[in-house]
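Forum: Protein Structure Q&A
Topic: Joint prediction for protein chains with partners

I've read a bunch of threads here and the consensus seems to be that you should model interacting components together rather than docking separate models afterwards. I'd like to see that in practice. Below is the full input, 667 residues plus whatever partners are listed. Could one of the regulars post the assembled result?
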Amino acid sequence: MGLNLCRDVHLWCRSRELVEAGSQSDVTATKSSSSSMSLEGRGFYRPWFARCKGPLAATFKDRGRRRKESLQLDRILLVFVAALALVSCNNDKIEVYSIPKKGVTVAMQNGIAGMPPAPVGNPAKWVKPEGWSEQPLTEMRLGSFKVDGSNATSADVSVTAFPGDAGGLAPNVNRWRGQLQLPPLEEAQLQQTIQRTEVEGVQTCLVDLQTPENAPKPSRILGAVLETPDRTWFVKMTGSPELIESQRQKFLNFVKSFRFTSVTEGQVPEAAGTNMPKSTNDK
Amino acid sequence: MTSELARWLKPITSLKLTIFCLACAMVLVFVGTLDQVHIGVYEAENRYFKSFLLFFTPPHTDVRIPWFPGGYIVGGLLLINLIAAHLARFKLSWKKAGILLLHSGIILLLVGQLFADLFVDLESQMRLDQGQTKDYSESLYHDELAVIDTSDADADHVVSIPDSRLHNGSRIDLPIDALQLVVDDYYPNSALVNLTQLPSPNYPHLRVGPIAAAVQIEKTYKENERNLPSAAVSIFQRGQLIGAWSLAAGFPRPASFQAGGKSYQIVLQPKRFYKPFSIQLLQFRHDRYAGTDIAKNFSSRIRLLDPSKHEDRESLIFMNNPLRYRGYTFYQAGFDNNDTTTVLQVAQNPSWLVPYISCALIVLGMLIQFGMHLVSFVKRRVIA
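Posted by a regular:
Agreed with the consensus. Here's the joint model:
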């Protein structure tokens, strides 16, 4: 039975090829006649499975005509795919453009805004004050805390570190001033507003900034800048003036608790991609 | 219609093609939805819907074997099938008005979305500290290697090379001053570590600072994380080495060099999209319900500056109230730095009205078609 099936399939395919070769060479002469003749009449061998009736019969009937249509469809598809491919292959282009020098942005930003974060690995320890809750570390932060006050107010404490002098003390303090809508100060004026101290032999600068009197949303920043040999640490507490005042001593104690440890060799830490800022969709 | 054109159109007017495309679309949506759990929404969108083909890579090989049509082929074929069917069987009559309107709406929707995908890139973000002004936004997913000619007093001339062109050993001829860029090493995603934390001195790394090294890590597809590539590049001018640098997108600090009497900067940074106007953040507000920590409102009061259009005005951007200006839409998306930094989502989609018009046409077409059926049915019942 298997041999008979193979024979039938072979004869069927061979007879189709012969019929199609004959019809293509003399289309005009045989077109009208071939369309009216049955498949067997045109020398088309139809084995038993091609003579079945019902839904399956449609799959075997008149394969020649539908094969021509599918060839046309294949060509149309190829042309379509090629056209779309040509149209859309513009994502790898090198772009050339000019930006005015008087534009408000430059490739290099002042202060730590354009600085690399300190490498992963935290060569410092500190003592968390009572009442401060640890928060998940976000972009560039080595430490993050939240302080809850009365009337649903809260303060945010961040600890960051950047290699070298991190752009300098003045640009960074002026950046904090800008966040409170205070005008920037020259280096000489700034030095008068800074309190200098030492933490474990490390030079530390303390700043206390507050929004102007008529500000719609009063805010205050307590900041500490600690300059170690290889990097500069920034400890910043931001919140309402009343809450900051109540937490002032705790902030100073927190800064004074910093202990800088030596880095030991170890595995390359697992690193995640940079965390994104908070989304307004987060609950 | 000529018989030749009709003969050509006949295969693509087939209803079987419509069924085939719809079935493929169902498979794409199903598989894409399952896979987006692992690779994220953006990557799933690019792989399954903004592509011609889906590829399969056998393990331990780099061979890409196409195994299924992608969204562009399926959607494009559906569009052609619909248009061809109308052309082949077009009969202008009131009875067909509903169908024509409905299908016109679908065609408009497909064409609008195809146009937006192929020709318009993108969403980007503009991050502004309080008081800061910017005239560019940055891509969330793509980076660029920018070579900037800073010798001109009036403007910086930027050559932006997309990260898709950066591979180990890439040689790129820059369209300025016979400069050639050679990528010696490229990490699609990297992490910054202290040099002393490397397992061994020979561990593959790029020295990107006095004490910082970039090491290669797996690409991330998480929603709240971003890939930060690093690269070691060299610049040649007429075959002569100008300099070699290690750059990291994690801290886009430009390196400067001189070539041919001109000064340049080179930086690896998130891809920037400059605008012909600038935006300054005046104030960001994060209002909470009284006595709670529940957010009530996020808003950014900004100043829009456009000297070419003599535009200098303030605007308030808050939830569901974006700023639309010169084809760009600025949405309030996020915040940082204890409510002193705002993050605006910037979308550019000239065809943003098309889905609304399409839906209106579809609804109108359905109302007309079903309305006509209803009227004829009621009339027959009355007669009976």
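Chain B has five helices and 20 strands.
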